[in-house]
Design goal:
It is a single-pass type II membrane protein. This protein has 10 helices and no strands. It has 206 residues and is an all-alpha fold. It has 2 domains: 63 residues; 87 residues, Alpha Horseshoe (Serine Threonine Protein Phosphatase 5, Tetratricopeptide repeat).
Length: 206
């Protein structure tokens, strides 16, 4: 089932970024408390924990994509027990597996859980976008609009307006859908996405 469209490159980029820089990023976020007593111990401990989490993520991800029930169970356990960016990343992967199986309710649950663990605005935007697509596929246009409303970065606005237009169209708001598709065309986005937005805008304008 094709619910997601063209965010796979962004997902891969985020995964590569955190695989290469995750420890440094998290450590950098807490440098402001470096004067606190015991900082060196805390820094060492958190770095070790995150490195361990990264290794577990790689192992669980491999199990998940083996297609076995045990792999899904292991990924769900990791997502529930981990409270860092790797939990959010495995949540995205669990949602994709659920979408591929046609289990949109499970995909929605996985994404909602992942959103709670997102550590960067860009990752939260990505999760909200995917969550909105799933909610729209479930026929819940209002929930999809709420998720889209949480997307902040300009770089996601074309994709966000694409989904927003679809949600408004699902609600019968043709004028609103037109405005959303038009706004999407005026935002940053790939040529492929803009071609899709143009097609949708033409369809609702006829």
């Amino acid at each position: 089932m094709e619910v997601y469209t063209n965010e796979n490159d962004q997902v891969d980029a985020i995964k590569r970024f955190f695989a290469n820089n995750g420890v440094a990023l998290v450590v950098g976020l807490v440098l402001g408390v470096g004067a606190v007593f015991g900082w060196n111990y805390w820094q060492s401990h958190k770095t070790n924990v995150l490195q361990e989490s990264a290794q577990k993520f790689e192992n669980v991800s491999t199990q998940l994509h083996s297609g076995s029930a045990q792999g899904i169970e292991a990924a769900q356990k990791f997502a529930a027990e981990t409270n860092d960016v790797y939990s959010a990343m495995i949540g995205l992967e669990l949602a994709q597996v659920a979408v591929d199986k046609g289990d949109l309710a499970m995909a929605e649950k996985s994404l909602a859980n992942a959103l709670e663990k997102a550590k960067t605005e860009d990752m939260a935007d990505l999760i909200n976008l995917r969550l909105a697509r799933v909610q729209l596929a479930l026929g819940n246009a209002d929930a999809a609009l709420a998720s889209i409303g949480n997307i902040k970065a300009k770089s996601w606005q074309a994709a966000a307006q694409d989904v927003r237009g679809d949600a408004l169209l699902q609600k019968g708001d043709i004028a609103g859908a037109k405005a959303a598709y038009t706004q999407g065309l005026d935002s940053e986005g790939s040529q492929t996405l803009k071609g899709l937005l143009t097609l949708k805008l033409n369809n609702v304008s006829n």
